[in-house]
Amino acid sequence: MKYTIYTDGGCRPNRGNDPGGWACIIIIQETQQAEYSGFHPATTNNRMEIQAVIEGLSRIPEAAEAEVYSDSAYVVNCFRDGWYRRWRRNGWVSSAGTPVENKDLWEKLLDLVEKRQITFCKTKGHADDPLNNRCDELATAALKQGRQQA
After folding, report:
1. Which of 99, 102, 139, 145 has the fewest Cβ atoms within 10 Å of its own Cβ atom?
2. Backbone angles phi, psi at 43, to 5 degrees
3. Active-site pick, 9, 10, 20, 56
4. Is residue 12 predicted with pLDDT exceeding 90?
5. In angstroms, how far is the first alpha carbon of the chain from the final one?
6. How many CA atoms, within 13 angstroms, populate the side-chain half-sphere of residue 88?
7. How many other C-beta atoms are found inside a 10 Å radius of the C-beta of residue 16?
8. Sheet holding 2-11: strands in order across?
9. Cα–Cα distance measured from residue 42 to residue 83, given in angstroms and rounded to the nearest whole number
């Protein structure tokens, strides 16, 4: 069974410890679609982008094949350019010699990716991709709802 997953995450403002939201849309065999979203009270934009992918992949079976669409260069380039391989080899130290940010989420995501056949695809944010725009709407709504409940 083939899956397509669209993801988005955001944080407003994005100063390093602000409220954030994530969202994912999972499409199964181009016929079924499910939407998920959530809130975190103190986070960053990058953490919400990673969390969105974690949430999407955790909802599909191990060994599944999926294309993951994200407007986050941070997420897509990590896999396209193999950053995670260097991070692991260097003991989770970046090329700048500093600890890799968001290590906890990267480790969760890598565990999910390694048990599935995943292709990461970059999509342009806030453009003409309806599913990316819908993910943005869902993440923003989760953020607003979470703020109201806090």
Report:
1. 99
2. -155, -165
3. 9
4. no
5. 39
6. 10
7. 11
8. 32-43, 18-28, 2-11, 65-70, 117-122
9. 26
Residue whose pair of structure tokens reads 């725009």 in the numeric block: 133
Annotation marks residue 136 as catalytic: yes
Does the pTM surpass 0.85? The reply is: yes
**Is 97 a residue of the active site?**
no
71 catalytic residue (yes or no): yes
Tokens of 16: 């390093």
Q: Which of 10, 20, 49, 56 is catalytic?
A: 49
* Active-site residue, selected from the candidate residues 10, 40, 55, 71: 71
Cis peptide before 13 (omega within 30 of 0): yes
Name the active-site residue from 10, 21, 40, 136: 136
pLDDT digits over 18-34, tens only?
999 999 999 998 889 99
Amino acid at position 107, single letter: E
Q: Which of 8, 10, 20, 21 is catalytic?
A: 8
Active site residue 129: no
Say what the pLDDT of residue 150 is.
Answer: 64
